[in-house]
Design goal:
It is a single chain. Among the domains are: 119 residues, no CATH class; 84 residues, no CATH class. It is globular, with a radius of gyration of 24 Å. The strands form 4 sheets. Strands 1-5-4-12 form a 4-stranded antiparallel sheet. A 4-stranded antiparallel sheet has the order 6-8-9-7. The chain has a two-stranded antiparallel sheet with strand order 2-3. By secondary structure, the protein is an alpha+beta fold. The chain is built from 12 helices and 12 strands. Helix 4 crosses helix 5, helix 4 packs across helix 11 and helix 6 runs antiparallel to helix 8.
Length: 427
């Protein structure tokens, strides 16, 4: 995630440049001349978005003078492998285009040789990061899409030819067909890349280190719990209610950028409530969320929500503001309902520490459950994403998971007839 403040008076020219990258409102042309996304076979999703503090004045309700926030350009990409190696590739393939885009920002380098260092210096790590299926690469996604299409089409022919009763025969004929297609180069199943030993060790230390740390500090947390709960309730009772209806024109402008694909983007930005308690709370719960996304919810689910491809929470402006970006399947209305109905308490843990969030009780009650106020809150804090790219348009997170299970069934022999029928059912 690269952030750079836009120079005074350069916002409109920057917006005009970003629009040249699109084939539809907000939807990137994969072959655009500035950043040709289709040349990067490690890039899942990417966006350019201009962060503006549209709701910055809301903090006045707490008796706090709004903090100045200059319009800031963000480039955000979710990629396979290391960020540094991807940035190096980005500069090689798109250096001229990146310099043209970031030339509207403060301190942007004019020299190609300085661009990579500048991007690294402006990179911002997330407080929490969610990946639908850790380890599934862009190459794997595309190969598994082709695998599913080929096997499904051939299965229909086989059923017409020999019927659907003999599932073992169907599977064997499918595998023979697949082997023939692979030998002729029409289907490729690239072996999964090896996990770098350093990453594996760090991930293992993180997996066991965080619970161990929580165990060590648990006595202190238990002692402090009554006082923290009392302080929380005092703050909740004194929170001002800020729930105006979002501007209709802004909602229409945001809606124009949505539903061009089965997957949509969401970008939101807002202030964290003032005071040490709220800042510590949002940092603590994002820390726990990041742990859960890394070690628990890593195979197609974020609790009970299955529609999110990638999501990111980033603390900005000296821990005074929070940026949230996600890539989800379906409409925004369905996305909001999904969270309200399935994981409202989880939303409350993090976002209730944001200015303007619907009032909560004991942190997890009400909040997102106050449906209309919650939807107003999201729309008011949502920002238009000027450029958005997805490497596999038309494919949902559910379909990607199904395709991975199809491949697993190819490479691993089912134990019994029931498992064979279930595998055939995926086709």
């Amino acid at each position: 995630m690269i952030l750079a403040a836009v120079e005074e008076g350069r916002l409109e020219p920057l917006d005009a440049v970003l629009k040249t990258m699109n084939r539809a409102a907000g939807m990137a042309d994969p072959a655009n001349s500035l950043v040709p996304f289709d040349q990067f076979d490690r890039l899942h999703v990417a966006r350019f978005v201009i962060l503006e503090a549209n709701t910055g004045s809301d903090i006045k309700a707490y008796g706090v003078t709004p903090f100045r926030w200059p319009a800031t350009l963000v480039f955000l990409g979710d990629c396979d492998g290391s960020a540094d190696s991807f940035l190096a590739e980005l500069v090689v393939r798109s250096g001229a285009g990146l310099r043209q885009i970031f030339s509207h920002c403060e301190g942007a380098p004019l020299d190609q040789d300085d661009l990579l260092d500048w991007l690294k210096q402006h990179n911002k790590k997330p407080a929490a990061n969610y990946i639908n299926w850790i380890g599934r690469t862009v190459v794997q996604v595309r190969e598994e899409v082709a695998l599913q299409k080929a096997l499904s089409a051939h299965l229909r022919k086989l059923v017409d030819e020999i019927g659907a009763e003999d599932t073992r025969a169907l599977r064997q004929r499918l595998l023979s067909y697949l082997e023939f297609e692979k030998q002729n180069g029409r289907i490729t199943l690239t072996p999964a890349p090896r996990t770098p030993p350093g990453w594996y060790i760090r991930n293992l230390l993180h997996k066991f280190g965080v619970p161990l740390l929580l165990l060590v500090i648990s006595p202190a947390l238990l002692l402090a719990a009554p006082f923290l709960a009392l302080r929380l309730r005092m703050l909740e009772r004194s929170d001002p209610e800020i729930a105006p209806r979002p501007d209709r024109k802004s909602v229409y402008a945001l809606a124009e950028l949505e539903d061009h694909d089965i997957t949509n983007q969401f970008s939101a930005f807002g202030d964290i409530k003032p005071g040490l308690f709220r800042r510590c709370a949002v940092l603590f719960f994002l820390w726990l969320l990041d742990y859960a996304a890394r070690h628990i919810y890593k195979r197609g689910y974020l609790t009970r929500v299955q529609t999110i491809h990638f999501a990111r929470w980033v603390i900005l402006d000296d821990r005074r503001r929070l940026f949230f970006a996600s890539n989800y399947d379906g409409s925004l209305e369905a996305y909001m309902d999904d969270f309200i109905n399935k994981v409202g308490w989880g939303l409350n843990l993090v976002f209730s520490n944001g200015v303007g969030y619907p009032l909560t009780r004991w942190l997890i009650k009400d909040g997102a459950g106050r449906e209309q106020e919650f939807k107003y809150y999201l729309r008011r804090h949502q920002l238009p994403t000027q450029v958005w790219y997805k490497a596999y348009p038309g494919k949902t997170a559910f379909e990607l998971g199904r395709n991975s299970r199809i491949r697993y069934g190819v490479e691993n022999r089912p134990d019994n007839d029931r498992e064979i029928r279930e595998w055939l059912g995926l086709l």
